[in-house]
Design brief:
3 helices, membrane (chains A, B, C, D, E, F, G, H, I, J, K, L, M, N), homo-oligomer of 14 chains, transport (chains A, B, C, D, E, F, G, H, I, J, K, L, M, N), ion transport (chains A, B, C, D, E, F, G, H, I, J, K, L, M, N), F1FO ATP Synthase, mainly alpha
Chain lengths: ~90, ~90, ~90, ~90, ~90, ~90, ~90, ~90, ~90, ~90, ~90, ~90, ~90, ~90
Amino acid sequence: MNEITLIVLGSTVAAVIGIAIGVLGPALAMGKAISSALEALARQPESERSIMRTLFIGLAMIESLAIYCLVIILIVLFKNPLLAYIIH
Amino acid sequence: MNEITLIVLGSTVAAVIGIAIGVLGPALAMGKAISSALEALARQPESERSIMRTLFIGLAMIESLAIYCLVIILIVLFKNPLLAYIIH
Amino acid sequence: MNEITLIVLGSTVAAVIGIAIGVLGPALAMGKAISSALEALARQPESERSIMRTLFIGLAMIESLAIYCLVIILIVLFKNPLLAYIIH
Amino acid sequence: MNEITLIVLGSTVAAVIGIAIGVLGPALAMGKAISSALEALARQPESERSIMRTLFIGLAMIESLAIYCLVIILIVLFKNPLLAYIIH
Amino acid sequence: MNEITLIVLGSTVAAVIGIAIGVLGPALAMGKAISSALEALARQPESERSIMRTLFIGLAMIESLAIYCLVIILIVLFKNPLLAYIIH
Amino acid sequence: MNEITLIVLGSTVAAVIGIAIGVLGPALAMGKAISSALEALARQPESERSIMRTLFIGLAMIESLAIYCLVIILIVLFKNPLLAYIIH
Amino acid sequence: MNEITLIVLGSTVAAVIGIAIGVLGPALAMGKAISSALEALARQPESERSIMRTLFIGLAMIESLAIYCLVIILIVLFKNPLLAYIIH
Amino acid sequence: MNEITLIVLGSTVAAVIGIAIGVLGPALAMGKAISSALEALARQPESERSIMRTLFIGLAMIESLAIYCLVIILIVLFKNPLLAYIIH
Amino acid sequence: MNEITLIVLGSTVAAVIGIAIGVLGPALAMGKAISSALEALARQPESERSIMRTLFIGLAMIESLAIYCLVIILIVLFKNPLLAYIIH
Amino acid sequence: MNEITLIVLGSTVAAVIGIAIGVLGPALAMGKAISSALEALARQPESERSIMRTLFIGLAMIESLAIYCLVIILIVLFKNPLLAYIIH
Amino acid sequence: MNEITLIVLGSTVAAVIGIAIGVLGPALAMGKAISSALEALARQPESERSIMRTLFIGLAMIESLAIYCLVIILIVLFKNPLLAYIIH
Amino acid sequence: MNEITLIVLGSTVAAVIGIAIGVLGPALAMGKAISSALEALARQPESERSIMRTLFIGLAMIESLAIYCLVIILIVLFKNPLLAYIIH
Amino acid sequence: MNEITLIVLGSTVAAVIGIAIGVLGPALAMGKAISSALEALARQPESERSIMRTLFIGLAMIESLAIYCLVIILIVLFKNPLLAYIIH
Amino acid sequence: MNEITLIVLGSTVAAVIGIAIGVLGPALAMGKAISSALEALARQPESERSIMRTLFIGLAMIESLAIYCLVIILIVLFKNPLLAYIIH
């Protein structure tokens, strides 16, 4: 098996497993945040504005973590800088 | 075993295991969010509108994580950019 | 062992294990959602309509995750696009 | 060992382990749903109808997940489409 | 080692381990359901009828999952359809 | 090592490990059910009859799961139908 | 290494590990049952008779699971029926 | 390495690991039972007799499980019946 | 396989798995912090300012941990200082 | 490597790991028992005598489990009966 | 494969996995601390000063642990003192 | 590699890992006991004497378990009786 | 591969993984301590002094554990005493 | 690879991993103890003396466990008595 095949195989498998593990944490965190927002809405319906604002900021922060994960994986799949060392 | 066979095998197995692990987190998160929405409905039936809106936004955010996972897997199955290095 | 045998074996085993793991998360999420719907019904019987509507939307969203998993597995079992590279 | 033997062995073992893991999630989910239904019955005996209806819909949804798992395993055991590639 | 020996060995070990894992989920689910039924009985002794009916339906649904598992294992032990490919 | 030795070894080890794992779930479920029955008795001593009846039905259902496990193991130890393929 | 040695070794190790795992579930279940019985006694000292009866029946049922495990292990250690196939 | 050495090694290691795992369950169960007995004593000091009696019966039942484990291990260490097959 | 290939493969796989594991902790921590902020908002709507300030400082601190992880991975992918030892 | 060396090595490693795992359960159980005794003391200072008696009996029972583990390990280290088969 | 390559590979992989595991604990700890600070703010808005001071000291202490981890990894990546033994 | 080297290596590694695992249980148990003692002190400051006495007896019992572990490891490190079989 | 290379590789990998695991416990402990300090502040703002003093002593004690870990790792990285045996 | 190298490598890796695992338990225990001390302070500020005394004794006891671990590791790193068997 030549070298580039091994790297293609390794990158592909790692990308799929990596995104599967990488969305686990953000998903649970979002679930917890949304769940608390709904409870807060049920307890203080009149402060819906500030609850929604806090929730959106929070979801954006958590989403950013999933995006880090996605970006690294897309870099590996589409434009792995390390490949420059073996493809001349 | 030639090279392309190994990549086909690895991609296929990784895709199936990856989607199976990747829906775990979003599923649990959705379960938690829906469960809180139902509790909120039972406590504040009159604020159903804002509860439903928050729930839908939340479910869409969580779904987006599962979609990231699905997209990476579909890219790997149908149009893996790394294959360009070994199929000329 | 020739190449196609290995791919058939890998795809079959991965499909079975994948669906087994893939229904775990949605099942637990549905259990949680239904459980909360029943508690909500017991606390607010008069708002049965909105509880049922929310529950159905939620179950459909969770089911969609299990369907993603099922679809990938059916693609792998019946029409794996990657097989085009090794069966001419 | 010839090829078909390996596939028979792999499919058989995967089918048994797959169904064993696959019923775990639905079983726990059903247990949770039934448990909540019984608590709801104890708290609101007069709304038995709507509780039972919700419970039945919920159990059917959860059962559907176990059925997905069973169907994939029966396909693998009785009519694996991938076998067409190696049995001519 | 000839082929049929390996399949006999694999099927036997998988059957025993499979049934051991397969009863875990249903057992825990039944324990939870019965436990809730007893709590419901202690809280609402007068609605014993509807509690028992719900419990029986629930236990039957959970038992069905264990039966799926048992059926697959009995098929593998007594009449594995895949054996037709190697015993002529 | 000839074939029958391997099958004897595999069946023996699997039987012992299988029964050890297989009683885990039913044992925990019984513990939960008995524990709830005792709590129910302490809260509603006068409804002892219906509590005991529910408990016995529940324990019998859980015991049935352990029996499934025991039966498969006894079949494997005493009268494994698959042995017919290798002992003529 | 001849065949009977391997079976003796496998059976001995499996027996010891099997009983160690096999008492785990029943022990935890008994602990839970006894703990609930003591709490019930502290809450309803006058219904000691029915609590003790329920506890004894429960402990006997749980003990039966540990006995299943012990019986299989004693069969394997003292009179393994499968040995008839290799010792003539 | 001759055969008896392997069996001595396997039995010794299994005995030590087996007793270490085997006391885990009974220890946790005893801890739970004693803890509940102390709580019961603090809530109902006047029913000390029946609490102590129940506790002693419970501890004896749990101890019996640890004894099963110890007995199997002592049989393996001092008088393994399976050794008769290889030491003539 | 020459040396640089192995390092490219190892770095790529480690980067993907590393970012996937590395966002798990910060995601759960953010979820917990946002959830508490929403509960605090629901209990004390008038102190929204100080709640939001504390939340932002907290999220920034947690984000910094994810950034450490991201930075190490980007260093490894784009400018691994250790490569200087093998590429002259 | 001759035989006795392997047995010395195996016994030594197993003894150390065995005692480390074997004290885990009893330690947690003691912690739970002592913790409940202290809570009971804080709630019913006047029944100190019976609390202390129950605690001592309980700690002795749990200690007995750790002693079983220690005894088996000391037997293995100082006077392993199985060594008689290989040292003449 | 020559020696320095192996060390570069090992250090790179360990650095990435190490930072990913190393931020897990501090992240969860920060999440817990911030969450408690927000709850404390909601309960005692007037003592915001002392709450913020305690929180900052706490976050700094937890951050120090993540910094230990980062420092060791940067030492390994940029200036591993052990390399002096093999690069002359 | 000669025999004594292997035993030195095995004993050293086992001793370090053994003490690390062996202090886990006692540490958690002590933490639980001390924590309960502090809660008891806060609830019943006037019964400090009997609380402290019970705590000291409990800590001594738990410490004894850690000492068992330490003693076995010191025996293995300084005066392993099994070494007599290989060093004449 | 010569000897010193293996030791450099092993020490480097162990150091990075060791610090990553070693900060896990202290981080969680600090999180718990700070969280309780903040709750205590919210409940008893007037006893801030003694709360802060207790917290600082506690954080110092926990930090000492992380320092033990850091010190052993720095010894291994910078001045491993065992290296004296192989570098003359 | 000669013998002393292997022992140096094994001891170094075991020491680092050992201290990392060994501080986990004491750290969690300290966290729990300090947390309870702070809660006790918040509930009974006037009994600060006896709370602090109990906490210090408890922390010292837990620290002793971490010290056991540290001592064994320092013995292994600096003055391993078993080395006398291979270095003459």
